[in-house]
Write a structure and sequence with these properties.
The chain has 383 residues and is an alpha/beta fold. The protein contains 12 helices and 15 strands.
């Protein structure tokens, strides 16, 4: 029997299956979405897109769990039903790796099932050894893209008077305040990896320019665009922050609307959301789960899925990084000074990307167990 590949994804609603039946020698692949839900315009939605693409190309049976109050139970149900590949996008791995309450982990109970988890080295012990042979870890080096986003945020903030039309935007002058903000959905390595990389990238440029920044951070925003979240984001902009970065599912909608209302900028996450509120989204930190899902399914059906860890970084085209900035470029002033400065900024970001790839710049990685980058030399947390 082929090993079962299970991708671990949590949702907070009743147990719901969406099935697609294509018979290719009985190969069955399942996917469970995370708490952000199937229609999050990014992480989960792109994963489903990747699975659907693979389903069409490889003629396989697929099942998507769009909501599950009991994620361990959902995983076990898929395993019992003979699914060969199950994707999980959730951030809690205890039942799968350690104990589901029965005294055994799910991985132990289904030794012929290969479980694939995302965003953490949860199947790696303190010595670096695998805990279960039938669990695969998928890591997106979004710390690298977040670093670039932080660097870009400072570069743009320092030059906003040249780059943007003051009649269209309402930026706080750097002579009055220098600040950024990060909004995380929950306290986990899979979210901290964005915030820490962002702060480190901002610090890198602030240090080069010999300026100091404050940064507001929250890791309790949840994944919905609630009035309370909008109020919190408004408070960051009102305090003088010109750029807010959110890694919190639907919270990005509140952030982008706030940016548009206040003449500021936002940084989105997972998918390219630059055109969702044109002119208000500076860039998006990409975490293209569709690329990974398709790639892993392709390897699975070819019997080539033989690694314990799959990493998608800046060298894997289309999987992570930041966008090409084409949308925001349309809002740069058409003056010689603005165009020259914008070209300079893009060249700087390209240089930083090259330095990350060649190892000159080492970006902190919460997913790999790195410690927090704080305290930083030129960026200070203020909350």
């Amino acid at each position: 029997m082929k090993k079962l590949l299970v991708l671990f994804v949590v949702a907070l609603l009743p147990f719901v299956f969406v099935g697609c039946n294509n018979a290719n020698d009985g190969t069955k692949i399942g996917l469970i979405v995370s708490a952000a839900g199937a229609n999050d315009n990014g992480y989960n939605e792109y994963a489903i897109d990747g699975l659907n693409k693979a389903k069409e190309e490889f003629d396989i049976d697929t099942q998507v769990v769009t909501s599950a109050a009991d994620v361990p139970g959902s995983i076990k149900t898929l395993a019992e039903e003979g699914y060969d590949l199950i994707f999980s996008l959730e951030y809690d791995f205890n039942a799968l790796i350690t104990d589901d309450g029965s005294g055994k982990s799910i991985a132990e109970q289904y030794p012929d099932t290969t479980f694939v988890i995302f965003n953490a080295f949860a199947n790696t012990d303190s010595t670096g050894a695998k805990i279960h042979d039938n669990v695969i870890e998928v890591i997106f080096n979004v710390n690298e893209g977040s670093f670039l986003a932080g660097a870009l945020a400072v570069l743009v903030n320092e030059n906003h008077e040249v780059l943007f039309d003051s009649e269209e935007y309402d930026f706080t002058p750097t002579s009055q305040y220098r600040g950024l903000a990060f909004v995380g959905g929950t306290e986990s390595d899979g979210i901290s990896v964005f915030g820490w990389g962002f702060a480190q990238g901002a610090n890198y440029i602030a240090d080069e320019l010999d300026v100091e920044y404050n940064i507001y951070e929250t890791y309790a925003a949840g994944f919905a665009a609630t009035p309370a979240v909008r109020t919190q984001i408004d408070s960051y902009y009102d305090a003088g922050v010109n750029v807010v970065f959110a890694a919190a599912g639907g919270v990005s909608t509140a952030m982008k609307n706030a940016a548009a209302d206040k003449g500021k900028l936002a940084i989105d996450v997972d998918a390219n959301q630059d055109a969702s509120v044109p002119g208000s989204v500076l860039t998006s930190v990409l975490k293209e789960t569709n690329v990974a899902i398709y790639d892993l399914v392709k390897q699975f059906v070819a019997d080539e899925l033989d690694e314990s860890v799959y990493t998608y970084d800046l060298t894997f085209a289309g999987s992570t990084g930041i966008t090409d900035l084409a949308t925001i470029e349309g809002y740069i002033q058409d003056t010689t000074a603005a165009q020259a400065k914008w070209t300079e900024i893009k060249e700087k970001i390209a240089d930083l990307k090259a330095k990350i790839i060649d190892g000159t710049i080492d970006v902190v990685d919460a997913q790999a167990g790195d410690a927090s980058p704080y305290p930083l030399s030129n960026v200070t947390k203020v909350n």
